[in-house]
Amino acid sequence: xxxxxxxxxxxxxxxxxxxxxxILTGACRTPEETRxxxxxxxxxxxxxxxxxxxxxxxxxGDTFVWAHGREARVSIVSRADGxxxxxxxxxxxxFPGAPPQTLTxxxxxxxxxVLTLGGEPRVYAIAVPRAxxxxxxxxxxxxxxxxxxxxxxxxxxxxxxxxxxxxxxxEILRPQPAKK
Length: 180
Ligand SMILES: [Ca+2]
Known about the structure:
Blueprint lengths: L1 H27 L7 E2 L3 H4 L7 E6 L5 E5 L3 E8 L5 E9 L9 E6 L2 E7 L5 E7 L7 E9 L5 H4 L11 E9 L7
Antiparallel strand pairs: 1-10, 2-3, 3-10, 4-9, 5-8, 5-10, 6-7, 6-9
Bound molecules: calcium ion (CA).
Calcium ion binds next to β3 and β10.
């Protein structure tokens, strides 16, 4: 009799209880938020998805990573509780006769903005409204107009990789309130 009651109990209540527990855990825990990636093994391993080469350093010791395709994906954890500014320092692979390199940022497959990159390292910022963020993991996708190989484009170059743009760092900021 007791066993029958128990079985009825577990069927009727156990699954909803587990589900309720999961919802409660998910709702109460504030997720960590990705604030900055320095494109080095310490801060950025695990955040880089498809489209990136290995970690490198400039002669001055700045860490960076080449996006080596027309698309490069980064995983960002968000609380999705407001607008955010995506700032990053990057530079395109340039070669004689190169067209302007453009960068389009998608957040969770939604297009945000298109930038034309200058030839030298520069800091860019793109405003991403709250509606595009999800709580937890979010995908930033950078899309470039070209990815070319130095070996094919620069006389004497031996690097066979295709390259689109190199990233030094990326940060996710709360927009500053407008000054009164
Ligand atoms: Ca860096």
